Please model this.
Amino acid sequence: MTIHENLLGGPPPTHLPDDPEPREQLAAGTAPADVAAQHPTSSLAWAQLADDAFERGSVVESYAYARTGYHRGLDSLRRSGWKGHGPVPWEHDSNRGFLRALHALARAAQAIGEQDEYERCTQFLKDSSPTAAQTLG
Model:
């Protein structure tokens, strides 16, 4: 038996490919809208836009940004072999943009009264990465 063997018999963790340029641009202070325009498939850029909009009270805008990041992330997960369920570990840095967008979507859905979507996204986050659910709140 190897240390990394999946004893539960579920799907293996999905690790999204590294996409360092958007991450580096955001860390360097490039405006998230500029990063999203240059890298529209980057869930991280959309998640940052969602967080910024939510912080300034623009909840509907946050919802739209989060939904875009979430769907871009789903596309990337599927291209990486994800079959609609299974772990998407927070510990893998490249997964964090998707997980942040999913969290932002749940938060904005709750704020606009979309309780079913809030519950679905919250459960999806917990199922994908308990660490992300705990870290992001």
About this structure: Residues 32 and 49 are 6 Å apart (CA to CA). The radius of gyration is 15 Å.
